[in-house]
Design a protein that fits this description.
- With about 140 residues, this protein is an alpha/beta fold.
- The protein has a single domain, classed as Rossmann fold (3-Layer(aba) Sandwich).
- The chain contains five helices and six strands; from the N terminus they run αβαβββαβαβα.
- A six-stranded parallel β-sheet has the order 3-2-1-4-5-6, sandwiched between helices.
- Strand 1, helix 2 and strand 2 form a beta-alpha-beta unit.
- The radius of gyration is 13 Å and the shape is globular.
- It starts with 7 loop residues before the first helix and ends with a helix.
- It comes from Leptospira ellinghausenii.
- InterPro entries: CoA-bd, NAD(P)-bd_dom_sf.
- This is CoA-binding protein.
């Protein structure tokens, strides 16, 4: 993680759109209720999920490459830690990402370092709900 705690509030304020990688259709999963919470707090939330769904009224794309580049600047990831290298590969190939946020319990130091070396701000093992409540 190359973002200091003191930078998180301004980082969140700087990005009105958050793309959620792995936005679940199951309302009981964090990968669904965290995006709902963030949307209720004023952010535009777009999601990716391999199966099309309309649960929660989110705009869902099958993959990150289908999302317009201007909406891929801040990516919040809900994938297991072992999948993060693949996610970082995809992000680096597509370009346009400025922030990579790995949700609570998710980290992969080597993949995070590759993203950081590419100029991406990385936050790992942090929950958007917890950080929102801490700073707003």
């Amino acid at each position: 993680m190359n973002v200091a705690d003191s930078e998180i509030k301004s980082l969140l304020q700087s990005y009105p759109t958050i793309t959620v990688y792995g936005l679940s259709q199951d309302p009981l999963k964090p990968s669904h209720y965290v995006p709902v919470f963030i949307r209720e707090k004023g952010w535009n939330v777009i999601g990716t999920y391999p199966k099309e769904h309309t649960i929660g009224g989110f705009q869902i794309y099958k993959s990150l490459k289908d999302i317009p580049k201007e909406n891929r600047t801040f990516i919040d990831v809900f994938r297991s830690s072992e999948n993060i290298p693949e996610v970082v590969d995809e992000i680096l190939t597509l370009g346009g990402t400025e922030v990579l946020w790995l949700q609570l319990g998710i980290s992969h130091p080597e993949a995070e370092k590759r993203a950081e070396n590419a100029g991406i701000k990385v936050v790992s093992n942090r929950c958007l709900i917890i950080e929102y409540k801490k700073y707003f």
